[in-house]
Amino acid sequence: MATTTALPADIFDVQVNVPLIHQVVAAQLAAARTVVLGCRDVDKGEQAAAGLRHEGLTVEVAQFDGAATATHEAFVRGVAERHGDIDLAVVAFAQLGDGAATSKDAAAAADLAHVNFTGAISATIAAWA
User: Fold this and answer.
1) Is residue 102 packed enough to be buried (19+ CB in 10 Å), middle (13-18) or exposed (0-12)?
2) What SS3 string covers 109-124?
3) How would you classify the pairing of strands 58-63 and 34-39?
4) 3-state per-residue secondary structure call for 60-93
5) pLDDT digits (tens, 9 = 90+) for 29-73
6) What is the helix (H) or strand (E) element at residue 12, kind and residue range?
């Protein structure tokens, strides 16, 4: 992991399907060499990657499921094996859900909470391990 305040050379981003996260990552790309976009929807990730790519920047799109917490550590380990140390990990993803449905369906609410809270914690711990 980077221990300086310099702009990172390698960025690992989880769930860039969220427009605000896309903007944050794009702002960091000037000094970056590699960006890995972990996306639930790889096709949308490829669309986002197309707008990020420039000469000297490698953008990899990889399938990532925030709800599949048992896979997070292996996902991050795979990124590190392919690209070396991760200088910056942007872990930001969520499912919006349907408020009317989740207020009446405990299982749906629990599934949503699992992705939005447990998944984010799991991915963050995996990124820093």
Assistant:
1) middle
2) HHHHHHHHHHHHHHHH
3) parallel
4) EEEECCCCCHHHHHHHHHHHHHHHCCCCEEEECC
5) 666 788 899 998 999 999 988 888 877 788 899 999 999 999 999
6) strand 10-14
In CATH terms, the superfamily for domain 10-128 is NAD(P)-binding Rossmann-like Domain (3.40.50.720)
- Cα–Cα distance, 101 to 99 (Å, whole number): 5
- The helices-and-strands tally (H runs, E runs) of the chain is 6, 4
Domain locations in the chain as residue ranges: 10-128
For the entire predicted model, the pTM comes to 0.74
Please write the tens of the pLDDT for every residue from 92-105: 888 888 889 999 99
Cβ within 8 Å of residue 3, ≥6 positions away: none
Question: Which two three-digit tokens encode residue 102?
Answer: 């989740």
